[in-house]
Amino acid sequence: IYGECRRLYPDQPNPLQVTAILKYWLGGPDPLDYVSMYRNLGNPALNVPEHWHYVSFGLSDLYGDNRVHEFTGTDGPSGFGFELTFRLKRETGESAPPTWPAELMQGLARYVFQSENTFCSGDHVSWHSPLDNSESRIQHMLLTEDPQLQPVQTPFGVVTFLQIVGVCTEELHAAQQWNGQGILELLRTVPVAGGPWLITDMRRGETIFEIDPHLQQERVDKGIETDGSNLSGVSAKCAWDDLSRPPEDDEDSRSICIGTQPRRLSGKDTEQIRETLRRGLEINSKPVLPPINAQRQNGLNLDRAPSRKDSLESESSAAIIPHELIRTRQLESVHLKFNQESGALIPLCLRGRLLHGRHFTYKSITGDTAITFVSTGVEGAFATEEHPYAAHGPWLQILLTEEFVERMLEDLEDLNSPEEFKLPKEYSWPEKKLKVSILPDAVFDNPLH
């Protein structure tokens, strides 16, 4: 990684660095060992301004001795397979780079380590706060390939460089409704909003749609209508209950392995959900859910890198049962629970994904449950028209017909007006045996509720 940075900055062999005082592998809170900060002179010919270039060290495997990441060989990804970068416009008279981007990168790294959700180009991060804790309108992030740093082959696997791009709320919403890559392309065409290298200017006061109103109608609205949404899933505060099974079944000793809902997603299910999300992010890919395969690892399903688990998160026996024993269950009636931010994405899921023959996944940020909505055109789902609600362990799939989707969109109309919203809010379709609740964040933050 240093070699790739030296190629780009031969005159800066010893850049300024922000260092984790107590390394993560010694019990410290910050997963990134270092963040290097370089001065980039830009490219006047391309209208690229001078800026600070930040590069993280720690999401990939820096050591190869299993102290942080499981060493899996040289062919696959190193650690999580990527490092983060960030380009911040240099203010006039600034002689040293601001250090707040390093803390921002540590925050994103903590999310990746805790959730084990990796990032891809085109992903978005809804942050809901100015990235530098100022009054800035730049309050969210998109991710894209760094325009200058090339993927590197290391002794411990491949590392790519994903650049953080600061965006306004309106740009984030457009990326959710359409797709991240489309909005990144628009940002590249507007010099003050990023330009070709997507440099973040925290003082930018206007969205790209205010700078050029035609972008909204001619590009984004048309793209949403034609393409639907390219967002195949989100990490969310969500949960689901099986209303068709009496709760005392949980205490039935015969169902301790078979048919119970394990507390955590198995490593296999987590990989399949990741694959589902990856496939959904490929433009023009066929809407296929990866099948549930009975692949075994010594007969057991172990969560990847158990050393990363929080000490409070004790492994239940259900997390390591042989994969074949967790059978797919058809459910009669289900209750879905979302916080307000996740609930606000349900219309997008229905209109932008299912009506276009695609799927959409909510994966709990605690990693212990997932909900995938599928349309009748999606292959490989274990939910069917005959049994529209089906669960494989804690992974629930819900198949919705086009007719029902249209009806739900009408009933969920007020989700589009969050300012008039009073929590908790409940929606119910008794004949479909489906209930959806929008609940305060506290319900999900406190597992005792």
UniProtKB/TrEMBL annotation:
Residue ranges occupied by any Suppressor of fused-like domain in the UniProt entry: 28-204
Domain Suppressor of fused C-terminal per the UniProt entry, residue ranges: 218-438
GO cellular component terms, A-Z: cilium; cytosol; nucleus
Keyword Nucleus among record annotations: yes
Main localization category: cytoplasm
Ranges for region Disordered: 288-314
Assigned keywords, A-Z: Acetylation, Cytoplasm, Developmental protein, Isopeptide bond, Nucleus, Phosphoprotein, Ubl conjugation
Xref: Gene3D superfamilies: Sufu, C-terminal domain (3.30.1360.230)
Cellular localization per UniProt: Cytoplasm; Nucleus
GO process annotations (BP): negative regulation of smoothened signaling pathway; negative regulation of transcription by RNA polymerase II; signal transduction
Family as reported in the entry's similarity comment: Belongs to the SUFU family.
Protein name: Suppressor of fused homolog
Origin species: Notiomystis cincta
